[in-house]
């Protein structure tokens, strides 16, 4: 069932009992544009939902909203409306496949990086007010290495860095790792090779990046594996569906589901606070670091 009425959804969400444990927050980033960040974020989130994890997918790319387009959802309100005070964060939530909750961004709006500090605070407050029982939150970030990208990545427990086998992607990935490690104290980055033609290509790509990063930076890179280049994935995008739903036995869907399985086993966040409070705290700390 797909209900797009935010009011209904918000009401339904409020009755669920709170979880004892904070949700796992995973930011999907990459530096370069077009490497597959949104594709990975959407499919990871759908696969986690499929596995029974209450998952929220947060689109923080206010410049170009991809998540709702990729999932064929029609937002009534977006994160931009929250920032501008027109609605509460709960009002923006849409229901995607398998009960996935989606907070959409908005097309053609200003980048979050351009938000005034007061607007940033408003957004953070909106997150504090959102009292949802979640197991996981997946954040799709914009291309580039803006403060916004760094802040959302820092606020997450795990950063999944999507990289392709092309010089610009590797260079941009390195630049992002460098900023995360030097300026944001991120000590571990999960590297996912995308659009590879063979498993060996993914491994070599990772080795290349890890050699440089571990020599010059104080950071541990973990190889998450590779998503193959897959025409079925392109077809799923044309259908506005996640490939794990549309073509569940395609090579890319298998790899993406495997990614979700492993992400689900990463060490659980410590602390017993519920909701998304801890994420908000880290978001505030990150925003402070950027100032
Ligand atoms: N494994 C893959 N196989 C084939 N095509 C892929 C794969 N991953 C991504 N693509 C294609 O690459 C294009 C870019 O993907 P996507 O929008 O996810 O990238 P992005 O990093 O989010 O881009 P942006 O920086 O613009 O937000 C899409 O058209 C998608 O279909
Ligand atoms: Mg994107």
UniProtKB/TrEMBL annotation:
Example of a GO MF term: ATP hydrolysis activity
Binding site for ATP: 32-39
GO cellular component: cytoplasmic side of plasma membrane; cytosol
Annotated CobQ/CobB/MinD/ParA nucleotide binding domain residues: 26-241
Record flagged with keyword Nucleotide-binding: yes
Keyword entries, A-Z: ATP-binding, Nucleotide-binding
Alphabetical list of Pfam families matching this protein: CbiA
PANTHER family in alphabetical order: CELLULOSE BIOSYNTHESIS PROTEIN BCSQ-RELATED, SEPTUM SITE-DETERMINING PROTEIN MIND HOMOLOG, CHLOROPLASTIC-RELATED
Protein name: Cobyrinic acid a,c-diamide synthase
Taxonomic source organism: Vulcaniibacterium thermophilum
């Amino acid at each position: 069932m797909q209900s797009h009425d935010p009011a209904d959804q918000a009401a339904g969400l409020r009755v669920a009992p709170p979880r004892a444990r904070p949700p796992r927050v995973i930011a999907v980033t990459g530096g370069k544009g077009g490497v597959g960040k949104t594709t990975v974020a959407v499919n990871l989130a759908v696969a986690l939902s499929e596995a029974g994890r209450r998952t929220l997918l947060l689109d923080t790319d206010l410049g170009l909203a991809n998540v709702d387009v990729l999932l064929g959802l029609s937002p009534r309100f977006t994160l931009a409306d929250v920032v501008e005070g027109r609605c509460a964060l709960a009002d923006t939530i849409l229901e995607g496949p398998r009960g996935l909750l989606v907070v959409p961004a908005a097309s053609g709006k200003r980048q979050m990086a351009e938000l005034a500090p007061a607007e940033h605070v408003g957004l953070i407050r909106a997150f504090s007010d959102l009292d949802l029982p979640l197991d996981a939150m997946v954040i799709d970030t914009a291309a580039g290495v803006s403060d916004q990208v760094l802040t959302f990545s820092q606020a997450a427990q795990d950063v999944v860095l999507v990289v392709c086998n092309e010089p610009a992607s590797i260079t941009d990935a390195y630049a992002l790792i460098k900023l995360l490690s030097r300026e944001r104290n991120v000590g571990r980055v999960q590297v996912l090779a995308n659009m590879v033609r063979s498993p060996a290509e993914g491994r070599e790509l990772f080795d290349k990046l890890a050699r440089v990063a571990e020599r010059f930076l104080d950071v541990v890179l973990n190889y998450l594996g590779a998503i193959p280049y897959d025409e079925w994935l392109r077809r799923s995008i044309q259908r506005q569906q996640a490939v794990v739903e549309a073509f569940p036995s395609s090579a890319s869907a298998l790899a993406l589901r495997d990614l979700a399985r492993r992400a689900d086993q990463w060490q659980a966040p410590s602390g017993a606070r519920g909701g998304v409070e801890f994420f908000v705290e880290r978001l505030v700390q990150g925003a402070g670091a950027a100032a």
